[in-house]
Design goal:
Layout lengths: L17 H8 L3 H7 L4 E6 L3 E6 L2 E9 L3 E6 L12 E2 L6 H16 L8 H11 L4 E9 L7 E10 L2 E9 L13 H15 L1 H17 L14 E2 L4 E6 L6 H13 L5 E5 L3
Parallel strand pairs: 8-9, 8-10, 10-11
Antiparallel strand pairs: 1-2, 2-3, 3-4, 4-5, 6-7, 7-8
Length: about 270
């Protein structure tokens, strides 16, 4: 059976949703703290939710709940709770708790290994160091109609009034190289391109709305020449971070082999700096 690319629904974001109205007109005290923290980045999600991240780890999932108001949920391990249920922190989120959350994210997520850089840490650093470039992170949608597989693209940025989707990989990622056939990254980039082409117009409308919501909430957005004429670039970018701490002959050979495999694709290999 032939795979059919899933189509995005329209109107997945509502600029007049209760959450966005509350955050604009009557925000909780902690909202300004999160919004102005230079170590955090904030993204808008489908179904009118807001996600706050530190080093790629989620600080809070913010939503509006009837009868409650603005809710902020977090993974239990980031607040030291032994549970499998998300924890509500809206009623106690302050600078002290935020500092503790950052430490827990570093311990449990972004810096778990002394010998290897976590990809999500690289992703988070890309955003906070280039706020005038990146619009969104962690775009996700079902890949094919009737299937559970999800297309996940790391970053979304604006370049020359184009909405550009960017995949990140570390040079050590096994999907970049294989001893048999084509590496997995080729299939991954082709799948992204297929999805972007099928959903071009819907993605364009979605990100125009997302951009306007971010502007209205006073969040960081890229420099935009003309919002009304933003267009989606069908070809995704691949950025490979060279995280090797030293270069050996085998590593040089691996890099050259990856370059050969990726001929014809929009990619770049850059040195990773902390």
């Amino acid at each position: 059976m032939e795979n059919v690319v899933a189509k995005m629904a329209e109107n997945l974001l509502d600029p007049k949703a209760p959450l966005f109205t509350c955050l604009k007109e009557n925000p909780p005290a902690w909202w300004e703290m999160l919004r102005n923290d230079p170590e955090l980045y904030i993204d808008i999600r489908k179904e009118n939710k807001v996600m706050v991240y530190y080093q790629g780890g989620r600080v809070a999932a913010i939503a509006y709940k009837r009868g409650y108001g603005v809710s902020a949920m977090i993974h239990p391990k980031y607040v030291g709770v032994d549970s499998d249920k998300e924890q509500e922190i809206a009623h106690r989120l302050d600078s002290t708790l935020l500092k503790q959350i950052k430490v827990k994210i570093e311990e449990n997520y972004s810096q778990r290994s002394d010998n290897d850089i976590q990809e999500k840490l690289i992703q988070g650093n890309c955003v906070i160091k280039n706020r005038n470039l990146y619009l969104d992170s962690e775009f996700a949608h079902r890949q094919y109609k009737g299937q559970s597989h999800t297309v996940r693209i790391d970053l979304v940025k604006i370049i020359n009034n184009e909405i550009v989707f960017e995949e990140l990989k570390k040079i050590t990622d096994p999907r970049l190289r294989t001893s048999k056939g084509r590496p997995e990254i080729i299939q991954q980039m082709n799948a992204y391109m297929e999805f972007l082409e099928e959903n071009n117009n819907t993605l364009e409308a979605y990100y125009k709305t997302l951009l306007r919501i971010k502007i209205n909430l006073g969040l960081h957005v890229p420099s935009i020449q003309d919002v009304d004429n933003l267009q989606v670039r069908i070809t995704p970018e691949l950025t490979i971070f060279n995280t090797y701490d030293k270069i050996t002959k085998d590593r040089i050979n691996r890099i050259e082999a990856i370059k050969r495999e990726l001929q014809g694709y929009d990619y770049k290999i850059v040195e990773y700096t902390k």
